[in-house]
Amino acid sequence: MPKSMSDRAGDMLLGATFAASLGAVAFLLKLRKGNGKGTDESVKKAILEALDEARHSHPNIKLPHQHERKMQERMRLHAVEDDLHSEGPERRKVTVRVPATSANLGPGYDTIGMALDMWSEITVERADRFEIVAEGEGADDVPKDESNLVVTGMKAAFAAAKKPMPLLKYHCINRIPYARGLGSSSAAIVAGLIAGLVLAGHQLPCWGSEELLQLAACIEGHPDNVAPAIYGGIQLGIHTGERWTSERVNTPPGIQLVLFIPDFIGKTSDARGVLDSNVERKDAVYNIGRVAWLVNALSTSNLDNLRFGVEDALHQPQRGKAVYKHLYPLIEAANAAGANGCFLSGAGPTVMAITSGASGDIFAQRLSERVDWTVAEAMVRTAEAVGVKGQVYITSPAEHGAQVVSAEPAFSSKVVRFKGDV
Ligand SMILES: Nc1ncnc2c1ncn2[C@@H]1O[C@H](COP(=O)(O)OP(=O)(O)O)[C@@H](O)[C@H]1O
Ligand SMILES: N[C@@H](CCOP(=O)(O)O)C(=O)O
């Protein structure tokens, strides 16, 4: 039986009460720890009783850490509805835009990434013959045949829809620098997948199963670019053993990103090739601590803590030594000029610094209080000194991921009115 709006509001209210009681329990726990007495058995017992009590008095409320089960329940509740909506009208033409992404953010190798406000766009339409036209970044270099990653994504979408792949004309406007560590390959895959689903009129289940993420991450092999490309913001991605799953991490407000993008390309496959397949325990421990520090600094918007949070021992030292001589000089220069943190973007060669204003939101600052220009200048000077040519961009995180810009026939632009009016 579908829930009414007032049921849902009631659930939310109960949820808030429940969360508040959990908060009180957590507070109690902190108090005990703060007294230096540790968590004794009576406190543990009190927590368990509080949880049990909450479970019985609010049966509608699910306990935390049961994400998977909650999702499965929602999927089951909406199964009939979803099935009815999984096939829609096929479309002639579609335009999709997808953001650049910066993977790893230092220590989060293959697990964390951020969407950037820098977008590539593709338009795909049904045609009499296969054709790819590309303009912008890497236009001369990207394959113009079926090996193009946009086509790979498109094929996966039609396979998911169980429909034959039609003849299509692709127009790609590449604004994401190609093979520079800014996720151009993931953007191409995600763009092809979404465009394909729209053309095929196929809707993937989303609740819980994150089907689009499954397809994209399986093609790319790791989720740190595709998750933020799809969902925007900063995303954590892991494989549970059965499937890919992702979670959004808070983006501290007002941060700016200063990118030094070398003129030379660095293929991700080559930059992965220089990494040893064995990791020493001390390096693993180093990175575990840094990733925890990073996620905590982001979650609490504590930019001062980013400096340590973006440090890495798993891939940057190796890549810096083998292929990117500019990496550590640029990191040191950006930090000395006031960056909150600086690291290799993805598999490089781009180096990205995070900056903020002197205090609070950067957009409320005077130019003289901001450090992004100072950091950019320091990076340019240092790149010159080490003899690496390139360009500097200043941008910000993108809170939204891939978007369908337009389609023919168009999707309705009307406001959707819920049918449960009273
Ligand atoms: N816009 C694009 N269209 C098609 N293929 C692309 C596009 N951009 C990148 N690729 C493919 O992805 C590869 C480069 O990606 P990669 O080495 O992972 O660098 P990046 O850091 O830019 O993702 C190239 O070999 C190219 O074949
Ligand atoms: N975790 C990957 C990220 C690759 O990102 P890209 O933007 O360079 O494709 C890695 O470090 O190899």
UniProtKB/TrEMBL annotation:
<dbReference type="InterPro" id="IPR036554">
    <property type="entry name" value="GHMP_kinase_C_sf"/>
</dbReference>
<feature type="domain" description="GHMP kinase N-terminal">
    <location>
        <begin position="151"/>
        <end position="233"/>
    </location>
</feature>
<dbReference type="InterPro" id="IPR013750">
    <property type="entry name" value="GHMP_kinase_C_dom"/>
</dbReference>
<dbReference type="InterPro" id="IPR006204">
    <property type="entry name" value="GHMP_kinase_N_dom"/>
</dbReference>
<dbReference type="InterPro" id="IPR000870">
    <property type="entry name" value="Homoserine_kinase"/>
</dbReference>
<keyword id="KW-1133">Transmembrane helix</keyword>
<keyword id="KW-0472">Membrane</keyword>
<keyword id="KW-0812">Transmembrane</keyword>
<dbReference type="InterPro" id="IPR014721">
    <property type="entry name" value="Ribsml_uS5_D2-typ_fold_subgr"/>
</dbReference>
<dbReference type="Pfam" id="PF08544">
    <property type="entry name" value="GHMP_kinases_C"/>
</dbReference>
<keyword id="KW-0808">Transferase</keyword>
<dbReference type="InterPro" id="IPR020568">
    <property type="entry name" value="Ribosomal_Su5_D2-typ_SF"/>
</dbReference>
<feature type="transmembrane region" description="Helical">
    <location>
        <begin position="12"/>
        <end position="29"/>
    </location>
</feature>
<dbReference type="GO" id="GO:0009536">
    <property type="term" value="C:plastid"/>
</dbReference>
<dbReference type="GO" id="GO:0005524">
    <property type="term" value="F:ATP binding"/>
</dbReference>
<keyword id="KW-0547">Nucleotide-binding</keyword>
<comment type="similarity">
    <text>Belongs to the GHMP kinase family. Homoserine kinase subfamily.</text>
</comment>
<dbReference type="InterPro" id="IPR006203">
    <property type="entry name" value="GHMP_knse_ATP-bd_CS"/>
</dbReference>
<keyword id="KW-0028">Amino-acid biosynthesis</keyword>
<dbReference type="GO" id="GO:0009088">
    <property type="term" value="P:threonine biosynthetic process"/>
</dbReference>
<protein>
    <recommendedName>
        <fullName>Homoserine kinase</fullName>
        <ecNumber>2.7.1.39</ecNumber>
    </recommendedName>
</protein>
<keyword id="KW-0067">ATP-binding</keyword>
<keyword id="KW-0418">Kinase</keyword>
<feature type="domain" description="GHMP kinase C-terminal">
    <location>
        <begin position="309"/>
        <end position="370"/>
    </location>
</feature>
<comment type="pathway">
    <text>Amino-acid biosynthesis; L-threonine biosynthesis; L-threonine from L-aspartate: step 4/5.</text>
</comment>
<keyword id="KW-0791">Threonine biosynthesis</keyword>
<dbReference type="GO" id="GO:0004413">
    <property type="term" value="F:homoserine kinase activity"/>
</dbReference>
<dbReference type="Pfam" id="PF00288">
    <property type="entry name" value="GHMP_kinases_N"/>
</dbReference>
